[in-house]
Amino acid sequence: MDNIILFDGICNFCNHSVRFIIKRDKNAVYKFASLQSNIGRELVSKHNIPTNIDSLILIENNQCYYQSTAALKICKHLKGAWKLLYCLLVVPRPIRNYLYHIVAKNRYKWFGQTDSCLLPSPELKKRFLT
């Protein structure tokens, strides 16, 4: 299983981000799993991902990417001008992650949270790991 995006299923911003990615991932490169799901917890364990990671997580070719690196690597496969953001990987990681951390730290306050994980439509269900 390559190209898996792990996300916080109760975060409104994260759920919106998943919908954003799906809409622009016309080749269905990515599959998704909530960090709260059984498969999400299994993948965290399997890849020795620290449980305190406050980030979107990309598992690509058995490598794990976090924070801004994950977000920018995801952009590489999105349609349109979004793929140009991949070039921002040349910006030093501490600078990129500082900005990422501001959003991550405040995402519940700014965007709220939900009581349940995102429920995909029947046609998108195959892209979600459970």
Structural notes for this entry:
The protein has 130 residues and is of the alpha+beta class. 38% of the residues lie in helices and 12% in strands. It has one domain (4-122). The chain has helices spanning 12-24, 38-46, 67-75, 93-111, and strands at residues 4-7, 31-34, 57-60, 63-66. Strands 2-1-3-4 form a 4-stranded mixed sheet, sandwiched between helices. Strand 3 (57-60) and strand 4 (63-66) form a beta hairpin. The longest helix has 19 residues, at 93-111. The model has no long low-confidence stretch (mean pLDDT 85).
Outline the secondary-structure elements.
Blueprint: E1 4-7, H1 12-24, E2 31-34, H2 38-46, E3 57-60, E4 63-66, H3 67-75, H4 93-111
Parallel strand pairs: 1-2
Antiparallel strand pairs: 1-3, 3-4
GO molecular function: protein-disulfide reductase activity
InterPro entries: DCC1-like (IPR007263), DCC_oxidoreductase (IPR052927)
Organism: Anaerobacillus alkalidiazotrophicus
List keywords for this structure.
single chain, 130 residues, alpha+beta, 4-stranded mixed sheet, 38% helix
DSSP helix fraction: 25-40%
Structural class: alpha+beta
Largest sheet: 4 strands, mixed
Strand order of the largest sheet: 2-1-3-4
State the low-pLDDT regions, or none: none
GO molecular function: protein-disulfide reductase activity
InterPro entries: DCC1-like, DCC_oxidoreductase
Protein name: Thiol-disulfide oxidoreductase
In short:
By secondary structure, the chain is an alpha+beta fold. The protein contains 4 helices and 4 strands.
